[in-house]
Specification:
alpha+beta; Jelly Rolls; 3 domains; six-stranded antiparallel sheet; 21% strand; B box and SPRY domain-containing protein; ConA-like_dom_sf; PRY; E3_ligase_FN3/SPRY
Length: 429
């Protein structure tokens, strides 16, 4: 072999082969890769091919078996270990790593080719569903908005018409009574003149004329209060507006978490949970201080700790476990002692309650029950008090149904009030 560009020697893949003498025919010849390198290059470590005698620890050409010394280090499975003791991965281990990398690559390729396209399709389905849901929300809100706009226009027109009617009625009354005053004034002036200027015979001669004029005066009735002169609030009544408003108030106001039942007001037939939100009825009276002025000593009633005196307030009560209950509002002056009917909620002028007894639903105030027809007993009842509007309203949150609405101008702060005569009721968060 000709040498070019200086001295060269044979480089064996993985190391410098010390001897090119063929091995005995009985020994397998290792697979070698030969490369010409300059003589000044450092001598690499020889790593025999997998399956060669050197790799398996058998004696090979120019070397010993496994465990024999190889130069300055120790040869272990074809890897020359430096004197410092740091090992270099062997061929088998590298092959294993290659196989693991190939398996990992195959798994990733399969994920990219099979799983991700399916996920893309699923993701597209999610996007389509989200888009449809978004469109549904927008369409429904647009429909509600349009309905609200139409209802607003209708109600404002009714308000304007009622305003004009009341105003015209007032003007008509003003004209009427102004004319009446003028007639009465003229008649009085006439009578005074007749009395002053005529003697008795003259009065007798003018008797017929005087009678006719006074008869006109007697036809002028005394003015009386007329509802026609007032603005009729019923012109703004709208079931749609009422329900939307009640739903919005009950959804937006979080009054229930601010309401707790006052333990001092508990009837001896009632027990209160630790969180002061659940009232449970017991037919047996508990041993309590009946002389406490705040306590209901006979009827199974209880008040909340705080009163409301302005704005809007709302709370929800879970009633699905009870077939006998009352809930609503009352003044602090509500009777609390004795077994008379006045101590029953709704049977006095200081309480306004929605009542259930078995399958009978009623609104009670001042002892005057008003039946409420319901197809299904509500699981929850919302109570809404509007001080500015002068209204107390009972609402079914599940069906968005107004159970009963009562107009009242409250002159005192009102307390949430409760009564239960069967199992329990609870304030809802």
């Amino acid at each position: 072999m000709a040498r070019r560009g200086g001295p060269e020697r044979l480089r064996v893949s993985g190391g410098t082969w010390p001897d090119l003498t063929p091995a005995p025919t009985s020994t397998p010849t290792p697979t070698l890769t030969l490369t010409l390198i300059p003589a000044s290059a450092p001598t690499p470590t020889l790593i025999p091919a997998r399956g060669s005698p050197a790799a398996e620890g058998s004696p090979g050409p120019g070397g010993a078996g496994r465990g024999a010394a190889c130069g300055t280090g120790e040869c272990r499975r074809g890897v020359r270990v430096p004197e410092g003791g740091a090992g270099v991965p062997g061929r088998d281990e590298l092959v294993d790593r290659c196989e693991r990398l190939q398996l990992q690559s195959a798994a990733i390729a399969r994920h990219v080719d099979e799983v991700l396209p399916a996920k893309d399709q699923a993701d597209q389905a999610v996007l389509n569903a989200a888009s449809a849901a978004r469109e549904l929300v927008i369409q429904r809100l647009l429909f509600v908005g349009k309905a609200c706009e139409n209802e607003e226009q209708r109600l404002l027109e009714r308000v304007h018409a009622e305003e004009e009617r009341a105003h015209q009625s007032i003007l008509t009354q003003q004209v009427h009574w102004t004319e009446a005053l003028q007639k009465l004034g003229a008649l009085r002036t006439y009578l005074v003149d007749m009395i002053t200027n005529l003697d008795d015979q003259g009065l007798l001669r003018a008797e017929r004329e005087i009678f006719e004029r006074t008869e006109v005066a007697e036809g002028i009735l005394e003015p009386q209060e007329s509802l026609k002169l007032n603005f009729n609030q019923t012109c703004v009544q709208s079931p749609l507006l009422h329900r939307l408003w009640a739903s919005a108030v009950l959804c937006c106001l979080t009054g229930s978490q601010e309401i707790h039942i006052d333990e001092r007001t508990l009837s001896p037939h009632l027990s209160l949970s630790e969180d002061k939100r659940t009232l449970t009825f017991s037919p047996k009276k508990a041993k309590v201080d009946l002389d406490c002025p705040e306590r209901f000593d006979h009827w199974p009633n209880a008040l909340a700790t705080a009163a409301f005196h302005s704005g809007l307030c709302a709370w929800k009560v879970g009633v699905e476990q009870s077939c006998a209950y009352k809930l609503g509002v009352c003044y602090s002056s509500v009777p609390r002692k004795g077994s008379a009917n006045e101590g029953r909620l709704g049977f006095n002028t200081a309480s306004w309650v929605f009542s259930r007894y078995d399958r009978e639903f009623r609104f009670l105030h001042a002892g005057q029950p008003q039946p409420v027809e319901l197809i299904k007993a509500p699981a929850q009842i919302g109570v809404l008090v509007d001080f500015a509007g002068g209204e107390v309203l009972f609402f079914d949150p599940d069906s968005c149904t107004i159970l009963f609405s009562h107009r009242e101008t409250f002159t005192e702060p009102v307390y949430p009030v409760f009564a239960v005569a069967h199992q329990s009721i609870s304030l809802v968060q």
